Amino acid sequence: MTVRVGVIGAGMIGQDHIRRLTEVVTGAAVTAVTDIDQTRATQVAARVGAVAPPTGADLIGSPDVDAVLVTSWGPTHAEHVLAAVAAGKPVFCEKPLATTAEDCLRIVEAERAHGRRLVQVGFMRRFDTGYRRMKEVISSGALGAPLIVHCAHRNPTVPDGYTSAMAAQDTAVHEIDVLRWLLDDEIVSAQVVTPRATRNRFDHLKDPQIMYFETASGIRIDLEVFVNCRYGYDIQCETVAEEGLVRLPDPASVGVRTAGRHGTAVPQDWKDRFADAFDTEFREWIAAVAAGAEPTGPSAWDGYAATVITDAAVRSLDTGGPVVTVDMKPRPALYGGTA
Ligand code: NAD
Ligand code: ISE
């Protein structure tokens, strides 16, 4: 069976995912593309032989759309995800699930009322080979209990529109999701402190930031977010446990020796660093939809959790760096909890 996907939002990542669905993943076709920029939607749709309905609601209601991909701006995600759930259609939503905890909970409640999972959130690191190997090692128990996690999330540069709060909401949100999954533990508090700021930033931005998180079992996480580091897109993660440690590998790259030096390339952006993870993410999502199964990737609950944890981090940043307790509701049974 070919899964017919309708895409809402034909911007940068929307176009990259359309390429992925049409050129990389088997068993999928893009049959509809919509965007508030109708000209862009029409052009992108034409490239893959899709139609360009005027609105997200029209696309979701179309009998030629089996599943929905939401890649529009974050504040518009909730509306489209809720409409897809109301239509009973599987929906993959790029992060964030929604920009407020209240909207995330509305989606969780809608899915609970539907009775089975329809929503997957685009936290692609869970599909990265390196993180998956790390999880196997930690889950095997061979290293004993995890105690401390050291992380760094560095971008070469960010545009003027990137704000200090986005260090948590847009950037650290990836560690927040992947570490909850990696450690199989919940984050209960967040703290953000700011060291000396780099001169290579726009004046309004606090960069770098150091974030501290604590989990329910007492694991401490430190995360450096540095989005004007200049030299590349660099993701580091090391988990220290009772009997040893496990470290995320750098992406494979040839070693070059020349002019008395030996070096390997550093990726320059997230598209390059996580290209394979995005491909796997969509292969697994399409396979689940084609089989009529519930998605196995990050759930609406994971989207809610990420939002309340980033809210706590932003509150800490905005109030001078205190430890802020994460205010999370009990986890419903649909997502493996007891509520
Ligand atoms: P973008 O601005 O390039 O594209 C967004 C598109 O959505 C634009 O074409 C815009 O016109 C359209 N749009 C906005 N509101 C709409 C609506 N209501 N209906 C239809 N179309 C609408 O942005 P982007 O960089 O492609 O990011 C899109 C989403 O993907 C964001 O939520 C972002 O956080 C997420 N993202 C995820 C990753 C990742 O690593 N997983 C990386 C980058 C972006
Ligand atoms: C961007 O939206 C992403 O998701 C990238 O993975 C992250 O590194 C970057 O900081 C964000 O702006």
TrEMBL record:
Write the protein's name: Inositol 2-dehydrogenase
Short name of one Pfam family for this protein?
Answer: GFO_IDH_MocA
Q: What class of enzyme is it?
A: oxidoreductase
Q: What gene is it encoded by? A: iolG
Q: What is the lineage of its organism?
A: Bacteria, Bacillati, Actinomycetota, Actinomycetes, Kitasatosporales
| Gene Ontology BP annotations | inositol catabolic process
Q: Domain Gfo/Idh/MocA-like oxidoreductase N-terminal, which positions? A: 3-123
- From the UniProt record, which GO molecular function terms apply? inositol 2-dehydrogenase (NAD+) activity; nucleotide binding
The annotated subunit structure for this chain is: Homotetramer.
Does the record carry Coiled coil as a key word? no
Q: What does this protein do?
A: Involved in the oxidation of myo-inositol (MI) to 2-keto-myo-inositol (2KMI or 2-inosose).
Annotated transmembrane regions: none
